[in-house]
Amino acid sequence: LEQLRRIRVECSQVESDISLVRRVSQGRLDIVGHESTRRSGAGGSDADTPVLFDLPEILSDGPAPSGSTPGARAVSVGAPGEVAAELVKSLDTMASPSALSNIETLSDGDLRELFERIRSFEVEMSSIRRQLHERIDAIQSEIGRRYRDGEASVDSIL
Amino acid sequence: NAADLDEVWTRYKDNPTQEDRDQLIVYYAPLVKYVAGRIASGLPQNVDQADLVSYGMFGLIDAITKFDPERGFKFETYAISRIKGAVLDELRSIDWVPRSVRAKAKSVERAMTKLEAVLHRAPTDEEIAEELEMTMDQLLGIYNQISSLGIVALDEMLSFGGGGESLTLGDTLADRQDGPGGMYERVEMRQMLAEAINKMSERAKIVLTLYYYENLTLAEIGNVLGVTESRVCQIHTKAVLQLRSRLQA
Ligand SMILES: Nc1nc2c(ncn2[C@@H]2O[C@@H]3COP(=O)(O)O[C@H]4[C@@H](O)[C@H](n5cnc6c(=O)[nH]c(N)nc65)O[C@@H]4COP(=O)(O)O[C@H]3[C@H]2O)c(=O)[nH]1
Ligand SMILES: Nc1nc2c(ncn2[C@@H]2O[C@@H]3COP(=O)(O)O[C@H]4[C@@H](O)[C@H](n5cnc6c(=O)[nH]c(N)nc65)O[C@@H]4COP(=O)(O)O[C@H]3[C@H]2O)c(=O)[nH]1
After folding, report:
1. Does the CB atom of residue A46 touch ligand 2 within 6 A?
2. Nearest ligand, CA of residue A27?
């Protein structure tokens, strides 16, 4: 059980970093997407509103799939680890900080290219994350089975 | 590319301008999405996520203003804890838990404390319901109401750590040993909570341990105990109320 738990903790730490970088890349993607929508004149945001005002709308999530219980899982807000730092660095080489903070100055072509680069990065993060979830959930269901069948007891933790 | 970011930081710290600050805000803003998403995960669907993001933005701006690049810490780590603090503080100050539900939670805790003093063990739901002169269904209904507000509401009711960073129950017991400072308090808290959990009823102990220490979902815990997810949810709510009544006693 100790081994299983150690693997899970390791996977969870990587998953936490990947989830962080995934969220960051989604945020970047949505900021870039918002700029291109603004240019095409669609979406009600007035052309002079600085992107800063729209950030709460841009950065919030769609509704979670129905039937998800709030707090189904204990979730903590942790500090980014080494994996996250490395991945953000590589995201920064694809989507430079100065491009992101001066997005109105990019040409339409550059904007579209920036969008595509961030999008393929996000897709990759989401896919790694899905695989990690499958692995973690498999471990969790085995750990759960051991508690259910009496092979493990919470007293050993406490 | 990291170089132009460092440039903006240095320029901003030497001479704070709106323009540089806005550049930093836009670059780091996705961190707020991360924090708001995680906090929203413990809240019911009707909480407006855009609101959480706006509360978080204040935390980010605060972090940018206060950050000292010379100290060698990573900005992201500092920013995430300020953003989280800002969102939780705002949630607490708007007191989004309805007063009636808070009052019910308080009366349940009072009943638990009183019964525990008399029985020298954790009271059963039957005993609590009797003490409060309500039916079992009514008591379970109260647990449901509290938990439908989201576990964060419970965590928030249990947050400790007067040292600047407000720790919730979830943070204290998390697998990750992260964050500078407060590490020792964390270990102490973890110890104290483990002792308090150890004195609880078997079911409560199992649910709390599996949820916080073993990181199982409510549904997975349901499979362990052979009950529904919503039943685990009720047990979890009762257990957290009980923990709170003990730690405050
Ligand atoms: N409750 C919950 N559900 C989850 C979680 N992760 C994934 N899901 C569910 O699984 C679906 C697929 O996720 P994905 O493969 O990561 O694929 C995702 C991801 O690649 C991307 N995405 C997700 N959120 C955002 C966002 O805020 N901005 C952008 N630009 N892309 C996003 O779009 C795809 C589709 O997203 P959805 O339609 O939302 O559909 C999501 C969502 O219904 C989670 O942590 N909690
Ligand atoms: N082992 C395991 N872990 C899982 C699974 N799904 C999510 N997690 C982890 O649990 C955290 C909380 O998920 P949530 O409660 O659904 O809460 C999510 C959800 O409300 C929202 N979210 C994230 N991605 C999506 C998405 O693609 N679509 C939608 N609609 N919401 C999302 O943001 C919140 C935070 O997301 P994250 O920071 O990524 O943090 C996630 C992720 O690290 C899973 O199937 N197995």
Report:
1. no
2. 1
Which residues touch B157 (CB under 8 Å, ≥6 apart)? Answer: B105, B240, B244
Q: How far apart are the first and last CA of chain A?
A: 15
Q: Give me B170's structure tokens.
A: 């979830």
| More confident: B245 or A83 | A83
Q: Please provide the distance, in angstroms rounded to a whole number, between the alpha carbons at the two ends of chain B.
A: 55
Q: Give me A73's structure tokens.
A: 């899982």
B76, A82 Cβ separation under 8 angstroms: no
pLDDT band at B165 (very low <50, low <70, confident <90, very high): very low
Test the B interface: residue of A14, A24, A76 with most B CBs within 10 Å: A76
Say if the Cβ atoms of B198 and A158 lie within 8 Å. yes
Take atom 26 of ligand 2 and give the residue whose Cα is closest.
A64
What is the C-alpha radius of gyration for chain A, rounded to an integer number of angstroms? Answer: 20
CA distance to A110, B53, B94, B120, B148, per residue, from B46 (Å): 38, 15, 15, 40, 11
The mean predicted confidence, pLDDT, of chain B is 84
Residue B248 burial (C-beta neighbours within 10 Å; 0-12, 13-18, 19+): exposed
The candidate with the shortest Cα–Cα distance to B36, out of A68, A24, A9, is A24
Angstrom distance (rounded) from CA B244 to CA B246: 5
Backbone angles phi, psi at B226, to 5 degrees: 75, 30
Query: pLDDT for B192-221, tens place per residue?
Result: 778 888 888 899 999 999 998 899 999 999
Quick: pLDDT tens for B5-29: 889 999 999 999 999 999 999 999 9
